[in-house]
Sequence to fold (286 residues):
Amino acid sequence: LAGVLPFESGERVLGYKVETAYYAQHQLELLNPANDLLSELRRVSAEPSDRQLRSLLGAFLFVGDDVYKTVSVLSGGEKARLAIAKMLLKPANFILMDEPTNHLDIASREVLTDALEEYSGTLCFITHDRLLINQVANKIIEVKNGNIKIYLGDYDYYTEKRAENEAAPIFSSGSKPKSSSEDIKQRKHKEARLRNDYFRRSNPLKDEIEKTEDEISRLEEEKGYIEALYADETKCNDGAAMVEVTTRHQQVLGRIKALEARWEQLSMQDEKMRQELAEDLRSLND
Fold:
C-alpha cells in the first residue's frame, strides 16, 4: 500500500490529489546520526522557521536545548518520535504506519495518539496495540485466508462482532447448509438489484466528481498563468491591469477552494455508498 514493495499482482491507484507519507521501523535507521534535531527536520523541508520546528519538536517532548542533541545520542523511543515528527512535517493527506507505537514509552505513546487523533487526513496503520486501535481507528480491516472483511467500528466493536459470528449455530457438516438452486437464484437477483441501485445512484455522483476534477485542473492552470503575470514588469507597472489580475486571482483561488471542498464531499458520499453496498452484499451471504 505504501508503494515500497512491488506487487505480486494487481496495482495501487491513488485518488485525486492524494499525497502519501509512510512510517515504519526501518526509517529510524535512515536518520542521520551526525545531525541535530533541527537539522534532521530540515532534511524534509527548509520552509518552516526554527520557531515552527521547535513547536513541532516540543509536541514530541523535545524541549529547550533538546533540539540541539545529535541523533546519535537519542534512545530508540526518541528516534521513533523524531521519525514520526519528520513524517508529519510532510504535506500528506494519507498516512500509512507500520507498528507506530513500537519502542515508544508511555509518554511518547500518548503524544503520538493525540497527534493521530487530531490528524484530519486518512490514516491506515498496522499494529498489535489494541489501545491505539480503540483510541484512533474507526474501521477495522481483517485479512484472513486471502480475503478481507471490513468492520465499521473500533477494536471493541470488531471483537464483539467476531464473537457473535463464532457463536453462530454450527451445522454438522462444519459449514452452512447447502443452498438450493432456488435460494441461489433469489440471492443472485437480490445482488443484481443492489448493484443496479448502487450504479443508478452513484453514476451521477461519479460524473460530478469527474467534472469537478476537470474544473479544478483548468483553474489550477489559470492560477499558474495569473501568478506568472506578477513577474511581468509591464503588468506590474500598469496599476489598472494589476488590479484586474489580482481580482481574478482571488476569484480563482476562492473557486478552487470551493470546488475542492465539494470534491471531498462528493468523494465521501461515494465512499459511503460503496461501503453500504459491500455491507448489503455481505449480509446476503452471511
